Amino acid sequence: MSLKVEFDEPKCVAAGQCVMVAPDLFDQRDEDGVAIVLDDSPSPDQYDEAREAAAVCPAAAIRLVEG
Amino acid sequence: MPTPEYPMARESGCPFAPAPTVRTMTREEPAGKVRIWDGSEPWFITRHADQRALLNDPRISIDEHRDGYPHMTRGRAESAPHIPPMITNTDPPEHTRLRRTVNGPFMVKRVEALRPRIQQVIDSLVDDLLAGPNPADLVQAVGLPVPTLVITQILGVPYEDHAFFQTNSSKTISHESTPQEAREAGQALGQYLGALLGQKMKDPAEDVLSEMGARVAAGEMGYEEAVHMATAILIAGHETSASMISLGTLALLQNPDQLALLRDRSDDPKFVANAVEELLRYLTIVHTGIRRIANADIELHGVTIKDGDGIVFDLSGANWDETEFPGADRLDLTRPARQHHAFGYGVHQCLGQSLARVELQVAYSTLYRRIPTLALAVPFEEVPFAMEGVAYGLTSLPVTWSA
Ligand code: HEM
Ligand code: SF4
To answer: Using the beta-carbon criterion (under 8 Å), do A20 and B354 form an inter-chain contact?
Structure first.
């Protein structure tokens, strides 16, 4: 099993919740704070972080696809 | 049962708990209605899961210009037609565009970079408090000045204007001001911020007003809009943080085991961060409901919310929803609480949340560590609560300590 991060950029309101819970997977763009995915294929020890990021994103801009 | 009036009064014996009707409706009537000041009866949504689903649903709107929008107060209803499109009254994609123009300074890394400065601000307020009279009022000594001093940094208010800025912003939000005083102070601040914006456009620095000035110059933002936005940031970030500092302290003083836990673990950033989330959940200071209007028919729990119907989301309902937070009436700094709705949910979720978090993390981890004997100077029943604002808080918090 692997986990892939899908990010729907137009939805992002740049609240930075993802950066707070998963700093290894997300950052914010300098100009406007819109999220950047640093790593869309987290390693298994990062799955919890990735799941939490998807859960806290207030704009439902982060989706995880299991493959 | 007749439609309950909203906002509802809390029970006097437990001022931290949401009104009993809110909790009953969360359990028994998830798609009920309330009656608001103008006699209209918007839907009343209190469950955590329902708020998550609806506040992100493109069929609901925050367009306060639309007939049927459940305004907070008569004053807000009367001013709504005169307010230009801003982040607080637009839907995506317009909202997304506007929000990205003001978001820069509120990014996690920009706010984290301010942490040492915020620590200095709070340390020097605690120094002053300890050097001053004992007992003292924590609202005036720490609660109100922290957000003012932080916001002056962020907006870029020059040091020599701090006193003016501090006096007037406290007056706009202090529960001790008369409505007239609050209005005059608000106007003085608006004029001040307008003039400062003009100055920053000529002579930019590293601050929010300069950033907005650059956007005004580039034609991405109107001048009026920028002044409105700066004032909104000031007000939205002021009363809320001030309330959280004072009320949080009171809640901890009432829960000495939790206060002791926080004091002992105040050098553990993870613990402190979670304690802040739990206090945000438990207190849910934005207690007059966030307001929306349906833009299409929506089915929910067997009823139809019709296109044009108003909807009120009571955030304290969701934050005390037993399904999401078992034993919700207990303040438990160790519970996972990050999924709370104290900052709202959906695209309008608080712009200043990262800043508020850092302010509160620094305040709570400093105050009780530096003043371990902090105690109420009056009986709990005599602490004056201020329940009438958008955010509830305290008019004063008399505290004492042993030297
Ligand atoms: C503990 C402190 C705070 C609490 C509890 C709080 C709560 C909230 C809530 C519930 C909303 C959502 C309103 C809605 O959806 O209708 C909101 C939005 C907002 N907050 Fe905060 N807030 C706090 C601090 C701040 C700070 C420090 C700032 C800025 C310096 C700020 C600026 C804003 C702005 C501009 C919005 C509108 C965002 C939008 O509509 O897109 N808030 N806040
Ligand atoms: S939490 Fe969601 S909305 Fe916020 S920055 Fe991350 S992706 Fe964007």
So the answer is: yes
Q: Which ligand is nearest to the CA of B347?
A: 1
Q: Which residue has the higher pLDDT, B279 or B150?
A: B279
**Domains contained in chain A, number:** 1
pLDDT level of residue B236 (50, 70, 90 thresholds): confident
Range of the domain at A47: 3-66
**CATH at residue A19:** 3.30.70.20
What is the CATH topology of the domain spanning B20-400?
Answer: Cytochrome p450 (1.10.630)
Identify whether the C-beta of residue B278 lies closer than 8 Å to the C-beta of residue B357: no
Contact B333, B67 (CB under 8 A): no
CA–CA separation, B279 and B265 (whole Å)? 16
ipTM of the complex in this document: 0.87
CA distance B30 to B320: 14
CA A57 to ligand 2 centroid distance, Å: 5
Interchain proximity A15–B93, CB inside 8 Å: no
Question: What pLDDT is recorded for position B370?
Answer: 97
pLDDT in tens, B249-275: 999 999 999 999 999 999 999 999 999
- What does the pLDDT read at residue B78? 87
Locate the domains of chain B by residue range. Answer: 20-400
Q: Is B354 in the A-facing interface, judged by CB distances under 8 Å?
A: yes
Pocket residue to mutate for ligand 1, from B282, B350, B390, most atoms within 8 A of Cβ = B350
Q: Is the pLDDT reported for residue A61 higher than 80?
A: yes
> What is the spatial distance between Cα B117 and Cα B154, in angstroms, rounded to a whole number?
11
Ligand 1 centre and the CA of B147: distance in Å? 13
Whole-structure pTM value? 0.93
Residue-level pLDDT at B402: 93
Peptide bond before B93: cis, by omega within 30 degrees of 0? yes
Ligand 2 neighbours, Cβ below 6 Å, are: A 12-18, 26, 35, 57, 59, 61-62
CA distance B68 to chain A (A): 25
Task: Return mean pLDDT, chain B.
Answer: 92
Q: Is any ligand 1 atom within 6 A of the Cβ of residue B237?
A: yes
Atom number, ligand 1, closest to the C-alpha of residue B315: 10
Alpha helix stretches (DSSP H) within B310-381? 315-319, 353-370
